[in-house]
Write a structure and sequence with these properties.
Layout lengths: L8 H5 L13 E8 L3 H12 L4 E4 L15 E2 L7 H8 L1 H24 L6 E3 L1 E5 L6 H13 L4 E5 H8 L5 E5 L3 E3 L1 H13 L4 E3 L4 E7 L2 E6 L4 E9 L15 E11 L7 H4 L1 E5 L6 E6 L2 E9 L4 H6 L1 H15 L7 E12 L5 E5 L2 E8 L5 H18 L13
Parallel strand pairs: 1-2, 1-12, 2-9, 5-14, 12-19
Antiparallel strand pairs: 3-8, 4-8, 5-7, 6-7, 10-11, 11-12, 13-16, 13-17, 14-15, 15-16, 18-19
Helix pairs in contact: 2-7, 2-11, 3-4, 4-11
Length: 401
C-alpha cells in the first residue's frame, strides 16, 4: 500500500538520515520486529532495554512509511471522547484507556531524555474546542467527565479563547498534558541509539514468507536469507496484514496536512498548544518550528493513492480557509502540503497483542489519531507478554473485542 504522498515536511527537514544494510546472512534472535517506523522503534526500545535480543527489518528505508507523513500530535485524548467511550466499553476500561495514554505520553518524554533527543520532543498544552456552537453541551460534559477522573483539564469560554489564543470558537477544554515531535528524526535517532545497545537493523529486507515452528517462527526475506525468532512483532502501521482484522472493524481513510510559511508575530501561546476541534473529521494545528504551523484534517473515505493525491490542492485551500476562520488575525500561507492514508477503529482503540490464528506473533497496530501514544502502550504490552506471558490491560486492545 502507498501510505503517503512523495513529499512530506519531515523528509525535507532531515534529508540525510542514517542508512542500514540489507540482510545478507542467516540470523536468529529472540524477537523479530517487522516495520521500521516509529512504532517498531518504540517496541524495539522496550525490548532492548529489557535485554531481549532483537532484530528489526523494513522493506524500505526505516521511517519512510507512514512515519514520514505523521503529524505527531502526542495526546492522551483519543478520537472517541471519554464520556462516549464509557458508554461504549464501560467506566473502568474507558478510564483505564485514557490513563494508559497519559502514562505513555510521560514515558515518551523519558525515552526522549534518555537518548538525548529532547530537542525533537516538546511538551505542549492541548486545546480541544467546539467546531460549532451546537457542540458546546457535549464538550462541557467531556470536560466534567475528565475532571471527575482526575485528568488535567480546565474549561475556557468564548472570551477566554479569544483573549488567550486569538481563536474564534464558543468554548474549549484546555489540558496541560500534550506534546509534539518530529517523528522522522525522532525515529532515526532512537534507532541509532538502540543499535549502540545491541539492536540489529536491516533495511530493504521484506518478510516474504513465514513458517510457524513449534518454538517460534522462521522468516524468509526478500534477500533470500532466513531469520529464526522465538516471536515476531508486526509493527506495520496502516499496511495491515491480510485477514488480520475483519473488514468492518477498521475504516481506511485518507488525510491531508500542510506546513505554513513562517508566520510573523505568531504568539507563544499558539506555538505551545496543540489545537483540535470537535468536527468530524476534525481540524487540527500545531507548531512545526521556525514560526510555522502544521495544519491538518480534511479526511476522505478513499485510499487509492492517485485519487488521494489528486485532492491535495483542494485540501490545501480548505485547511487554510478553516485556519483563517478560526484565527482571523493570523495570516497563513502554505509552504508544503501532503497526503497520507490511515485507519481508525469503531472505539478509537488500537489492536495490540496476540491474535488467536497466528502463534508466536504480537501485533502493534496503533490505529487512530494518537498512534504514537498507542505505540508506547504496545511496546509495554509486548514486553510484558514476552517476559511474563501476560499483561493485565492487554484485554483492552484485543482482536475481536
Amino acid at each position: 500500500m502507498n501510505v503517503r504522498s512523495s513529499d512530506t515536511y519531515w523528509l525535507s527537514r532531515d534529508p540525510v538520515p542514517t542508512r542500514y544494510s540489507s540482510l545478507r546472512r542467516a540470523v536468529d534472535c529472540d524477537v523479530l520486529i517487522i516495520g521500521g517506523g516509529i512504532t517498531g522503534a518504540l517496541v524495539a526500545y522496550e525490548l532492548v532495554e529489557a535485554g531481549i535480543n532483537t532484530i528489526l527489518i523494513d522493506k524500505r528505508e526505516v521511517a519512510h512509511g507512514s512515519t514520514a507523513a505523521s503529524t505527531a500530535m502526542i495526546q492522551y485524548e483519543m478520537d472517541v471522547p471519554l464520556h462516549q467511550l464509557i458508554d461504549q466499553i464501560g467506566e473502568t476500561d474507558a478510564v483505564l484507556s485514557y490513563t494508559l495514554c497519559l502514562r505513555a505520553l510521560n514515558r515518551l518524554a523519558e525515552v526522549a531524555k534518555k537518548m538525548d533527543a529532547s530537542g525533537r520532543f516538546h511538551r505542549q498544552e492541548s486545546l480541544y474546542f467546539a467546531a460549532q456552537c451546537e457542540d458546546i453541551d457535549e464538550l462541557k460534559e467531556e470536560c466534567i467527565t475528565r475532571s471527575r477522573y482526575g485528568f488535567p483539564v480546565n474549561w475556557l469560554d468564548q472570551k477566554a479563547l479569544w483573549q488567550q489564543f486569538g481563536l474564534v470558537a464558543a468554548g474549549g477544554i484546555l489540558s496541560s498534558a500534550g506534546a509534539e515531535l518530529d517523528p522522522f528524526a525522532f525515529t532515526q535517532r532512537l534507532l541509532l541509539y538502540l543499535t549502540r545497545q545491541g539492536l540489529q537493523v536491516f533495511e530493504h529486507t521484506a518478510a516474504e514468507a513465514l513458517t510457524y515452528l513449534e518454538q517460534g517462527v522462521q522468516v524468509q526475506t526478500s534477500q533470500g536469507t532466513t531469520i529464526t525468532a522465538k516471536k515476531v512483532v508486526y509493527a506495520t502501521g496502516y499496511e495491515v496484514p491480510e485477514r488480520l482484522v475483519e473488514a468492518n472493524d477498521i475504516t481506511m481513510l485518507s488525510t491531508y496536512a500542510l506546513v505554513t510559511a513562517p508566520i510573523p508575530h505568531l504568539t507563544e501561546r499558539v506555538k505551545n498548544t496543540l489545537l483540535w476541534d470537535t468536527a468530524h473529521p476534525y481540524f487540527y494545528a500545531r507548531s512545526s518550528g521556525g514560526n510555522r504551523l502544521l495544519l491538518g484534517g480534511g479526511d476522505e473515505d478513499l485510499v487509492e493513492a492517485g485519487q488521494r493525491d489528486k485532492l491535495i490542492p483542494q485540501k490545501q485551500q480548505q485547511l487554510l480557509d478553516r485556519f483563517n476562520e478560526l484565527f482571523p488575525d493570523v495570516p497563513a500561507t502554505a509552504e508544503l502540503t501532503w497526503a497520507g492514508t490511515f485507519a481508525e477503529t469503531k472505539d478509537g482503540l488500537p489492536y495490540i497483542g496476540e491474535h488467536p490464528r497466528y502463534p508466536h506473533s504480537y501485533y502493534a497496530l496503533g490505529f487512530g489519531g494518537n498512534g504514537i501514544t498507542f505505540s508506547l502502550i504496545a511496546a509495554t504490552v509486548i514486553r510484558n507478554l514476552y517476559q511474563h506471558g501476560h499483561c493485565d490491560y492487554a484485554r483492552l486492545f484485543r482482536f475481536g473485542r
